[in-house]
Amino acid sequence: MSNWVLGLTGGIGAGKTAVSNALAEKGITIVDADVIAKQVVAVGSSGLQAIVDKFGAAILHTDGTLDRAKLRAIIFADEPSKTWLEQLLHPMIRHEILSQLKDATSPYVVLSAPLLFENHLDKLCDHTLLVDVPEAIQLARTAARDRVSTEQVKSIIAAQMSRSEKQRRANTILNNDKSLTDMYNELEILHQNFVSIAVNHSTSA
């Protein structure tokens, strides 16, 4: 794989999607692990059929789509089921990610994943970018966006890798605690730098 891969991640409410969308507007191919994770369990997929075979048709909505809330409840209550699901889906997701990274034609390609470090997807990347904000901003933004309680947001944050550990692992940190304009300005500088690195990478490969 000769494409230079930028791993993009960030905690809930940090603004990873805004960064991803801005890079897409600059013509950068975005490989979104969340989108792929949904595709591998779409109606008619082998992934969905395996889940139905394991847990029964009650795991589906009436329209045949996966009832994610019901599946989440099962796997959080039963560790063997969680392990089984991960062993089923992670290879499928990884295969599709690799395929899309290989097919990208932009100067560099972004692998966007909220669990980039947790799922070891950073190993597929040449460089990682963490979109970072203080937890107080995460709480406020997510509660307002998703119309959920701050307690619920706190439990989601607690289930993710700690902010300090993500900061330690990331190659570059984009602080997104100011205005969108500030973020876009800083991102433009980073983007130009990534293009330059990627061009040098491709000529020396």
TrEMBL record:
Keyword Nucleotide-binding tagged: yes
Keyword ATP-binding listed: yes
Supply the PROSITE patterns for this chain: DPCK
Subcellular compartments: Cytoplasm
- In Gene Ontology terms, what is a biological process of this protein? coenzyme A biosynthetic process
GO MF annotations in UniProt: ATP binding; dephospho-CoA kinase activity
Enzyme Commission identifier(s) = 2.7.1.24
Its recorded reaction(s) are: 3'-dephospho-CoA + ATP = ADP + CoA + H(+)
Record Gene3D superfamilies: P-loop containing nucleotide triphosphate hydrolases
Cellular compartments per GO CC: cytoplasm
Q: Which residues bind ATP?
A: 13-18
UniProt xrefs under SUPFAM superfamilies: P-loop containing nucleoside triphosphate hydrolases
The highest taxon in the source lineage is Bacteria
Pathway, per Swiss-Prot/TrEMBL? Cofactor biosynthesis; coenzyme A biosynthesis; CoA from (R)-pantothenate: step 5/5
What's the top EC group for this one? transferase
Q: Which UniProt keywords apply?
A: ATP-binding, Coenzyme A biosynthesis, Cytoplasm, Kinase, Nucleotide-binding, Transferase
> What is this protein for, i.e. what is its function?
Catalyzes the phosphorylation of the 3'-hydroxyl group of dephosphocoenzyme A to form coenzyme A.
Q: Which family does it belong to?
A: Belongs to the CoaE family.
State what protein this is by name. Answer: Dephospho-CoA kinase
- Taxonomic lineage of this organism? Bacteria, Pseudomonadati, Pseudomonadota, Gammaproteobacteria, Alteromonadales
